[in-house]
Amino acid sequence: MKKPIILLIGVMIFCILLPILISVLFYGENEIPSSDSKNKIIQKSEKDAYETVDVTSPTVSVYNSTTNKIEKIDIETFLYGVVATEMSSDFSEEALKAQAVAARTYIIYKMENNMTQGHRGAYICTNSNHCQAYASYDELKKIRGDNWIKESYPKIKKAVDDTKGHILTYEGKAILPMYFSTSSGMTENSKEVFSAQYPYLKSVSSPYEEQSPKYYTEVKFNKSNFIDLLKKNYSNISISSENLYNQVKILDRTTAGSVNTIQVGNKEVTGRNMRSIFGLNSSNFKIEFNGDTVVFKVKGYGHGVGMSQWGAEGMAQKNYKYDEILFHYYTNTEIKDIY
Question: Considering its fold, how many domains does the chain have in total?
Answer without folding.
Answer: 2
